[in-house]
Amino acid sequence: MDWKTMLAYISGSVDEELLLRNEYLVAENRILRNQTKGRLRLNGLEGAIQCRERLGGLLRFYHREAA
């Protein structure tokens, strides 16, 4: 258990179910990263969704690079 998780448990400020869900997602991401090699190619819609989520709606248009 890392120090951030331990601090959250001690302080009681974070819901235990939320902590368990986050720990599961961290483990799942670690497994998926180990299974993938190199970069993932996204289609236009996937790239647009990724940009919108990362930039919080600041980007209005997504232009895919020419292959």
Note the topology.
Blueprint: H1 3-11, H2 16-35, H3 44-55
Folded structure, characterized:
The protein has helices at 3-11, 16-35, 44-55. By secondary structure, the chain is mainly α. It folds into two domains: 1-36; 41-67, no CATH class.
Q: How many H/I helical runs?
A: 3
The largest pleated sheet is described as: none
**What is the string of helix and strand elements?**
HHH
Strand content: under 5%
How would you classify the helix and strand content by structural class?
mainly alpha
In short:
This protein is an all-alpha fold and 67 residues long. 61% of the residues lie in helices and 0% in strands.
Keywords:
elongated; 2 domains; 67 residues; mainly alpha; single chain
